[in-house]
Structures are given as C-alpha cells and as structure tokens.
Design goal:
With 211 residues, this protein is of the alpha+beta class. The chain has two domains: 44 residues; 151 residues, Alpha-Beta Plaits. Helices cover 56% and strands 16% of the residues. It is built from six helices and six strands. Strands 4-5-1-6 form a four-stranded antiparallel beta sheet, sandwiched between helices. It has a two-stranded antiparallel ribbon with strand order 2-3. The longest helix has 39 residues. The radius of gyration is 30 Å and the shape is globular. It starts with a helix and ends in a 9-residue tail after the last helix.
Length: 211
C-alpha cells in the first residue's frame, strides 16, 4: 500500500514535466509539418507588371475587331544577339539603351497608330495590327524585322552577319486572352513566344523565321 502511494506521489510530481514534454513534442511536430508544406509548395511568382498604355490600346483594337467579328492579329519580334557585348560605332556603349532607342525609332515609323506595339524586354517587341488580315500582318512583320535588324547593324557594325530578328504572327482571340491573363502584355508575350518555339521545333534543324 505504501509502495502504491509512493508511485502515485511520483506520478503527480512528474506530471507537469510530462505535460511540458508533450507540448514541446506537439509544437515540434507542427513546425515540422509546416516546414514540409512550405517545401512542397512552389515559391509564389513575382507579380507581373502590366503595361497600361499597351493594355488600353490593345483593348481599343479588340473592341474594333469585335465589331467587325474578327480576331486581333498580333506579332512578336525577338532580337537574337551574337554575343553578350558589342561595340556601337567603334565605341563601348550601353547595348540595352541603344537597342531600346533603335527599336522605338523603327517601330514608331512602321507600327504607329492605329497599330500598337510595346517593348517587353531589351530584346522583345509585341505588335498588334489594326488590320485583321493575317497575310498583310505577316508581310508587315517581316518588313519590320528587316528594318529593325538593318538599323541595329548600322548602330552595331560588329554584329553584321550574326545578328538576327525572329518573328511570329498569330490571330488572337481577345476575350480568351483577357480571361486567361490578368496582365495582357505578359500573357500575350508568353503565348507568342510559345508559338515561336513550336515553329522552331517543327522546323527541326532549320532556323526560325528571321530577318
């Protein structure tokens, strides 16, 4: 009987320690589970930055084309450089700033209103044509790519013969684009880049369409 009483007293005495250990074990298990969930989830992508001017112009073209019961014809020009650093007119210069200046100058002349265009990054330009004629848009995109390449070669003589400007043109359903992508310009760029990649893959060892 005395032995049982001693055991009971020992249990009561150690109960707080066991409770603390249980709480710590539960907290550690919860922390481990949370870490596992965090590791399993991909990092949240950075929010896409919308070009509000391009968005407004694209939606204006989309409304016009919808009244005409047709899609919007869009294109993508992609500059492919021969190397990471080039010389401009024999002197080192900021290639990114120079490219932007040349690209804006060429496209302002060849894709002005009611067409619209936007530079997505230092090597990529989006085009949206006011005309719904895809064949005409393809021809115009070819001419723009050729003009852009020629202007860049003049500014960067060392790139001659190796610099190219790839292009792709496609009819776009504006409703589907807006429903799928909160940011129009990034979504459209990804779609056209995907089409361009498919063209390259479908051509096998052939080079993509370039100026």
């Amino acid at each position: 009987m005395l032995h049982g009483l001693v055991d009971t007293i020992a249990d009561i005495w150690s109960a707080p320690d066991r409770w603390i250990e249980a709480e710590l074990a539960a907290a550690e298990a919860a922390a481990a589970a949370e870490a596992a969930r965090a590791a399993a989830q991909p990092e949240a992508p950075e929010p896409e930055i919308e070009d509000e001017v391009f968005r407004a112009r694209f939606l204006g073209l989309a409304r016009t084309r919808q009244r005409q019961h047709g899609p919007v014809v869009c294109g993508l020009l992609s500059i492919v450089w021969p190397g990471p650093r080039l010389m401009a007119v024999g002197q080192p210069r900021d290639q990114k700033a120079l490219t932007a200046m040349v690209g804006e100058s060429v496209l302002n002349q060849m894709a002005g209103e009611p067409d619209c265009f936007a530079q997505r990054d230092e090597n990529t330009y989006l085009l949206c044509f006011a005309s719904g004629n895809a064949a005409v848009a393809e021809l115009r995109a070819t001419m723009m790519a050729q003009a852009l390449r020629a202007a860049l070669v003049r500014a960067l003589p060392n790139s001659s013969g190796t610099l190219r400007v790839n292009r792709v043109v496609s009819e776009i359903d504006p409703v589907e684009l807006v429903l799928k992508h909160r940011a129009i310009a990034p979504g459209l760029a990804r779609h056209l880049q995907g089409l361009q990649s498919q063209q390259v893959a479908g051509a096998g060892l052939m080079a993509p369409r370039a100026a």
